[in-house]
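FOLDING PROBLEM:
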Amino acid sequence: METLSAIFQISILLIVAALIGFFTAWFYWRSKYRKMKTSLEDELEKQKKVISEKQRVNEHHKARVLELDKELAMLQERLHQQSGDGVPAKIYSSIIKNIGEGISVSNESGEFLIFNPTLEKITGYSHSEANSHREKPFLDELYPDPELRAQVDRHIHEVPEGNEHTNIKTVITRKNREKVPVLASSTKVTLEGKQFYLTAYRDVSTRPTQEV
């Protein structure tokens, strides 16, 4: 009888221990599950915010590209009208792309509407790279020397409008940090209340192949 009582008591203790172990494990894994769930939800929320921000930035860029395209179209039309020679805009575009001088057209915000292949070759920067220097102005890249950059900046603010233009000889720093002497001729055009800056660059580091 005593043996049965002892066995019963031991059985009760084992059952109690098993229940305690079960509930302890259950609370532990439940707590861990909740933490994991919270962590995953937080991470998912962060990813949603990142995706949303990327979409917003992309939409902003698309809208800005459309605005730049409109500005470029208006400028091309203005130049076409001023020429008075009936040359189609496509021919103007072809001339700008193939001319042996670097041509840039920028708006008041400093964005380049035109940055032709010759200018890409002279500076070592592509059109998109030139426009990507919004935090750090592109002038800082072309003119790392503060004194020279200040002189060029003053020149830019003194660019005349209409049929007038300025000419300077300066030295730019290419993307590969090579120094290149250039002649720069600049003028300013106003179209529908907006100002555009037109500059032609000529690399004078080499002599012409022919002299007459």
Notes: Helices lie at 2-83, 89-98, 117-123, 127-132, 138-142, 146-157. The domain at 99-203 is CATH 3.30.450.20 (Beta-Lactamase). The longest strand covers residues 179-191. The radius of gyration is 35 Å.
